[in-house]
Amino acid sequence: SSSRLMRSSIGPEGLHEHLKLLADTFHREIIIPIRQLDKPVIASIDGVVAGGGSSLALACDLRVASDSARFLIACANIGATADGGSTYLLPRLIGTARAMEFYVSDQPIGVQRALDLGLLNQVFPTAELERSTLEFAARLAQGPTVAYGRVKALFDSSWDATLTGQMNTETEYISNITMTADFQEGIKAFAEKRSPRFQGR
To answer: Under a CB-based contact definition with an 8 Å cutoff, are residues 67 and 111 in contact?
Structure first.
């Protein structure tokens, strides 16, 4: 934690190497695998989420929170830059001007503001957060999970693509999805005017 680092007797060079290793490990072993996972990841947030916790929440595909949650970048107050992919993810979620304001103000924001900015998908009363998150996850798990994972990959690839390139990738993905059992079940259920029973295959 930053408070532990400030109390540490590590000199500037040792601190430089220590933080470099921490950031690199956090990025490679946590943030990138979340983004590369072929299914949506839900962040369930209760209390204050700050620093690396903010980055972790941003790396997730969906974010739900208790009505008592607060968000804080927590870098500017110690003269640090942001990490954990937050400089990539936050501007894409809320725009560069709001992302910069969030960083330089270094003040916590409440759930209503986070919801208004698009940082959150849903807010639940604190006592209902765990149950509501599990219900939300269960609904997703009953859906066409292969398609969810591929749409996640499409969203991520779109950040580096041209419109034409992205549409070519969409053509490839939508033609390949026809080979899945879920797509075939979805088409059959539509024709039979019933709810589909997806199996994640």
So the answer is: yes
